[in-house]
Automatic annotation (TrEMBL):
Cofactor entry: Mg(2+)
UniProt name for this protein: GTPase HflX
Chief place where the protein resides: cytoplasm
Localization (cell): Cytoplasm
Keyword hit for Transport: no
């Protein structure tokens, strides 16, 4: 049986309307790390205290509450500056974990491939760097531990000086660059193949991976491997790309990738920049939204903000509200763009999502009727692979196609145009 560590969660609300949701999300993040929330403390302030995060008057009651409830750790709802962290730990004599460090811990636990581990490790080291200095604070000694999980990551605080950290950062960056070169080559090859790409993006646990698997199931000839689905925040850290082939349509690629969350540490966003390359190169984004979320507008805003941070902007987007089987209300106040409600657990509704994807992805294809002589074998093959075939029939003089032509091949195909 897993032992749960009692923790207190605490945050300053600085005129946030979604503060309670944000605390709730922090509790969910805590649960993934086997922390049991035994107390919640809030303070309303116009802005956080630059030295101690909470107002000084609040600190004593925070400490008293933590003691009374037996909390072993205090989780803070924001990223603390190194000064705030140190001052607040000294004042409360409690080990603190801010939202960033908690998210980094979760990512570290979920990183199973070398690129993902390196990306998380780099973010962790960069987080540690300004927070490490010789100190008499005994709490610092507890920051050791092993593996990728802790701020000290297996070495005592004293050993880890900034120079060593910088060396490690360089070493990991070099290894990651080498791995990413291989990825870039694969990605380039796909680009050369002139194949259209769709990327599933959105909040963590919204059902992106489930949606990818369901889309694969909707296409009968599909043999592609399914991706991992888990009721767990940040189950997916690596990008998976699959080909989808719908009869009579050109094949296209679809990618599933790391999910987002409010206040996703900038360090992680930067670390995962190349993992999100598929989304940057996508022709269409499908933003998967958990339709059961009480505040879908806020999660859409968060996702769009992170996409903007990654310079993934100005792309056609489908807002796909998932988990319709659990949803009580239909989406209201939909953002500008195409909206659909579906459930990844219901293939009939996923089929509708697929139709919408096809409609958006191939929106620039134009209708054309062709009569292609049987002698044009290679051209017939190209047409079958690259164009949307609506109808084909055999006549004495060749194959007659009613199709939607790729704008790139439209002019070339026009020479076979038939008015019959
Ligand atoms: N009831 C219901 N559950 C769903 C649906 N779609 C996904 N889920 C569940 O939601 C949880 C998360 O699904 P994933 O597909 O792993 O979500 P994700 O967006 O890939 O999550 P991360 O990879 O962690 O960012 C799993 O427990 C799924 O079974 C749905 O339509 N209905
Ligand atoms: Mg996933």
């Amino acid at each position: 049986m897993t032992t749960l560590l009692p923790v207190m969660i605490a945050g300053v609300s600085h005129q946030q309307t979604d503060f309670e949701n944000s605390l709730h999300e922090l509790a969910q993040l805590a649960a993934t790390q086997n922390y049991q929330v035994v107390a919640i403390e809030r303070q309303m302030l116009p802005q956080v205290n630059r030295q101690t995060y909470f107002g000084t008057g609040k600190i004593k009651s925070l400490q008293a509450q933590a003691q009374a409830t037996g909390a072993k750790l205090i989780l803070i709802n924001d990223e603390l500056t190194p000064t705030q962290l140190r001052n607040l730990e000294n004042a409360t004599q409690y080990r603190l974990l801010d939202r960033t460090e908690l998210i980094l811990q979760i990512f570290a636990q979920q990183a199973h491939t070398r690129p993902a581990q390196l990306q998380v490790r780099l973010a962790q080291l960069k987080y540690q760097l300004p927070r490490i200095h010789p100190s008499n604070n005994p709490l610092d000694q507890q920051r050791g531990g092993s593996g990728f999980n802790n701020r000290g990551a297996g070495e005592s605080q004293r050993e880890l000086n900034k120079r060593q950290l910088r060396q490690k950062i360089q070493q990991y960056q070099k290894e990651l660059r080498q791995l990413q070169q291989t990825f870039a080559t694969q990605s380039q090859k796909r680009q050369q193949a002139d194949i259209l790409r769709v990327a599933l993006v959105g909040y963590t646990n919204a059902g992106k991976s489930s949606t990818l698997n369901a889309l694969l199931k909707c296409t009968p000839e599909q043999t592609a491997k399914e991706v991992l689905v888990e009721d767990q925040l940040f189950a997916t850290l690596d990008t998976a790309v699959r080909e989808i082939k719908v009869p009579n349509y050109p094949a296209f690629l679809i990618s599933d990738t790391v999910g987002f969350i409010d206040k996703l540490p900038t360090l992680l966003v930067e670390s995962f920049r190349s993992t999100l390359e598929e989304a940057r190169q996508a022709d269409l984004l499908v933003q998967v939204i958990d339709g059961t979320n009480p505040d879908p507008e806020a999660i859409i805003q968060t996702t769009n903000k992170i996409l903007a941070q990654l310079e993934i902007t100005d792309k056609p987007m489908i807002y796909a509200y998932n988990k319709a089987d659990l949803q009580t209300a239909k989406p209201t106040n939909s953002p500008i763009g195409t909206t659909i409600s579906y459930s990844a657990h219901n293939l009939t509704s996923v089929q509708k999502l697929l139709s919408l994807i096809l409609q958006q992805l191939f929106a620039s294809y134009r209708p054309l009727t062709l009569l292609v002589p049987f002698t044009e074998g290679p051209l017939i093959n190209q047409i079958l692979c690259n164009e949307i075939i609506r109808d084909q029939s055999y006549t004495e003089s060749g194959i007659k196609f009613h199709l939607f032509a790729n704008p790139k091949s439209y002019n070339k195909l026009q020479q076979w145009q038939s008015n019959l």
